[in-house]
Design brief:
Immunoglobulin-like, 1 helix, 41% strand, three-stranded antiparallel sheet
């Protein structure tokens, strides 16, 4: 092997290593928001704690009317019917980029089975603006028994 072939091989290996390192270190936008519950199983009336980690480069904001929905797995995911919001739907809470927020909610009277939390979000919006959902994030699955 001559010197030129050796340098081409070394350059190729270095480029491959850089690509691998960048694919590990640079977060992917689709996976940059995580929604995690504190337990895998709850009973009706239990408090569910949820943590939202925003590892994206954008602020995410939530509705004042319906910041979350319970969904039940019945083959497909189905959310429960909610009454109409009686007030103007504004942005009430946001999670800044690279920030973590947690909140607690009570498990309502829902059917037993596998559930998840759906979080409608407005990306890049500001507090007190009208809420317009442009993305939805989901928690891990959990059992309501």
């Amino acid at each position: 092997m001559n010197k030129e072939d050796f340098l081409i091989i070394v350059a190729g290996v270095i480029i491959l290593i850089v690509i691998i390192i960048l694919s590990i270190l640079v977060p992917k936008e689709a996976n940059s928001i995580s929604v995690i519950t504190d337990n895998g199983a709850y009973s009706i009336g239990d408090n569910l704690k949820i943590k939202i980690e925003n590892n994206s480069g954008k602020k995410i904001c939530f509705s004042s009317c319906y910041p979350y929905y319970f969904e039940k797995k019945e083959g497909a995911w189905n959310n429960y019917r909610y009454s109409e919001c009686s007030e103007e739907d504004r942005i009430e809470k946001c999670v800044d980029r690279k920030d973590v927020k947690a909140f607690e909610l009570e498990i309502p009277l829902v059917k037993e089975g596998i559930h998840r939390i759906a979080l409608p979000a407005c990306i890049g919006c500001n507090l007190e603006e009208a809420f317009n959902e442009n993305e939805r994030f989901y928690s891990n699955e959990f059992l309501v028994k």
